[in-house]
Design goal:
This protein is α+β, with helices and mostly antiparallel strands. The protein has one domain. About 30% of the residues lie in helices and about 40% in strands. The protein has a 3-stranded antiparallel β-sheet with strand order 1-2-3. A hairpin with a 2-residue loop joins strand 1 and strand 2. It is elongated and about 75 Å long. It starts with a strand and ends in a 12-residue tail after the last helix.
């Protein structure tokens, strides 16, 4: 079965004051999960945002998830996603490689 990957934003790290603005997001914590059938495995990380890009200042309460996702995609090195996918795929391989072993019930000695 193919692994389906999803990215979820779990926390925003905010500077109380930055260049004359209040509550500016400076980093994003995320969870990247792979699902294959009934099994799910994930990795977590934090992406510091590039504050030099002069992004539009948006009040914290009004920032849409899609904007934060775009920041994470923009500022996370592509190798992070490759490594995460490899870790998740390896975990699934280990789970599927295990074989059940038949044993007698403990009361049937």
């Amino acid at each position: 079965m193919a692994i389906t990957y999803t990215l979820q934003i779990t926390e925003l790290q905010v500077l109380p004051r930055y260049e004359g603005h209040d509550d500016i997001v400076c980093a994003v914590r995320w969870h990247y999960a792979g699902t294959d059938g009934d099994l799910t495995m994930g990795v977590a990380g934090t992406t510091p945002l590039d504050m030099t890009l002069g992004c539009n200042v948006t009040p914290l309460a009004d920032i849409p998830e899609s904007t934060v996702m775009s920041w994470v995609q923009r500022d996370t090195d592509l190798s992070v996603w490759s490594v995460a996918q490899q870790q998740i795929a390896d975990w699934f391989r280990e789970q599927y490689a295990q074989s059940a072993v038949s044993v007698a019930p403990p009361w049937a000695a």
